[in-house]
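I am writing to request your help with a piece of structural work I have in hand. The matter concerns a single protein, recorded as an amino acid sequence and a row of backbone structure tokens. Could you please explain, in whatever detail you think fit, how the structure tokens follow from the sequence? Thank you for your consideration; the sequence and its tokens are set out here:
>
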Amino acid sequence: MKIIRFFLIVCMVHTCLPPAALASTNIMGANAQRYFDLPGQPLQTGLIEFALQANVTVIAEQGLIAQYRSGPVVGPSTIDNALRLLLAEAPLQFEYIESAAAYVIRPVAAQQGAGVEPIEIVIPSIDEILVVGSQYPFRYNTITNTQLHGAVPYFDSSRFLNVIPQSLIRDQQPQSLEYVLKFASAITPGDGISDSNDDVYLRGFQRHAMYLDGFRLGDSSGVRLLPAGIERVEILKGPSTIHYGQAEPGGIVNVIRKKPKAETFSQVQLIAGDMGRLGVSVDVNRPLLNTKKANYRVIFVDDQQQESGDILNIHRQLLSSSIAWQPSANTTVDVGFEYQKASQEWDRSFEVFTEFGNIFPHRSMADVAKQARPGFTAHFNLFSAEVNHYFNPNWQLQLKANLLQEYRYGIRTTTDSYLDDRVLLNTEGLGPDFALFILGSQTVLPLIVEQHDGLWHYGLGPIRSIYDQDDEELDSGFSAKLEGSFDTANLEHNLSLGVDWHTQNIAKRYVVERRDIALGQRWDAFEFEAAFAELAQTLFIEDRPLGELEEYAKELDYSDFGAFVQDSVALTDEWLVSAGARYIVTQADVNDITLNTATQLKTFKHLSTQAGVVYKPNHDHSIFANYSEALRANYILDDIGSQITEPELSNQYEVGLKSYWLGGDVQTSVAAYHINKWNVVDVQVVEGYRTALNGATYEVQGIDFDLSAQVSPKLNVLLAASVIDPSITDGSNTGNLPKMAAEQTSSVFTHYQLNSKLDFVAGYKFVSERYADDANTFRLEAYGTFDAGVSYTFQLNGLHAKCNLSVKNLSDVPYITAVDRGARVNESAGRTIFASFQVTM
């Protein structure tokens, strides 16, 4: 029997209807708005999911639809229009039969004239028809059957997956990806190299990288993905090496960008708010060259803000252009180019020297270290191409290629970037005994200690400050994936296999200011106190001359190759098992351009595995369990890179339940898991030298819970909660908690539609205490923030218009989201209010 297993109603219909009945329209369906989330897929599956999401009955002969694929339907639409888009790629049409309260799919035929005999619709056998109907989630489809992962619907997958749909992104009015992810379980914000890129912690582990349409972005990127260009976000919890290559065990965040649609529209949005917030976005979608086979989409964003926490003069721009072309019924081609420019400055007035009597006055970071540029700027250029070819409705070949070039200029305050053995921590000539005072991670003041005639003498070594930096990064990626289903021995297989290749070249140039203000001078303890008071005036004089500039340049060439396979087998209608593996090869070279030396780092070869089982006692519940593994190579662009010999490895055991309740009005996902991670590298300064300490082991066990509910036709609610028990079980910090691992997080987000014009939203997020470092020397306080918003929709000269008012951190709670190892404290922005006006043409 070929009927999909999660049908809720199957029946036979035999009736005679006159032409007038066939031509009639479902009045409710023609006017009712639903939120659809239907990608292009086999038409049979697409019709099933359409019926579930629209809460209607659809009747179709299986032989009629077996050879076709559905068109995509995403976002709010009337039921009739959604079905029309769904059938756009097939020579089919639909009729609504009032007496049967069902939609019937049939071939496109010539218009019937008057006097034609009534048409007899005969559905011959249960094996050849699709009849489905049930209530289905509503506004926020966070886990649906329509999205596929490894050729398996999310609901049938043995993994914990979340989807942040476009409807939720639109309601949140987010300022960044951090806000988009705010109301998903087990996610907390990270530092993102001084708030210059997107960074999160998942299940207590920092993300390895963000993924853009499956392409891995470098973790040192200088741009943040703007919500105006995001269609949805997919979150795969736990180790995810098979489909994504290198990964941290907490999970993967994959951002799906907006792509051209088979419709015509133009949308303009204006934004204004406090802290100097001004923004404009334009989204244009059109047919290309007046053809139905190709469409283009252009998105432009310009967003400015004068202040956000300790970040100043923020300016982000996006220009995204893409073309979707369907040269044949079975082939689609998508190409795109995205340019982003991001610039910002940091408040450098924070204190690095506290006033101490007459010895030295209060001094800030700006007083201590000069910089060539007032801030940081990044230019991001990404070209992407994707080809999908469907050999038949069940088998698909996908080819992807990406080329990323990014230029970064200026200094970002982060310990790991500058505390290199030769950039700032240059101990040459300091002797056997010295102390290093590190100021804001940008200046190193060395104190030399010597013993003469039984007395201790002190002196100052060369004072080194980071003056300028520029990076160039060139990444490329290619993947080929084959997905499909087949039957063997009455067992249905969903197979996914492929290969991928990723390269990364990062060239870094540092400019260091060196000052020798007391070269060769030594003082005893009494003399040094008096001498330092005079030296402080030289150190911190407001218009001091620039010291000697030294330049250091390094380059990392990195590549990894992977081959993977995953098969999911339906043993019965209730049981599904899956197994997969990835073989990965990573290699890298570090080139010291300044010294003209090259070091070939160790090549890693590793096989990662994954297995899962799903039991569905009925159509509303899916019990799952899985085992998965991940790998991350330890290549670092500095002098310690060649010391690291083994990659970080991790695995996870997980069991959970996905459910629909109350006829589909409530959907929940809950999972308990245990994660192990070993060969963890901790880079510390030991006796003046950066040292890679290998062999630490982390463990995290916890529970995640997500709920999406339609409490009433006007009220939708999202709930999320996570509890974890993290620990460092081996290494120099044994018994401590891993840095930034929040033991409890929870959130709630609500949307209430008062009427067809007025909507209200409100949200709350709680994050518990966490430590700033693995040594557990500094603990960050727990915090909770409220967000609220209201929107009003109306017609303006025949155009669809919408006004929004949003408030983030309504109660103006001061809190710290992350700390970068003493280099920087990432402070909250406080209460933020902004309004927007949007018009769609």
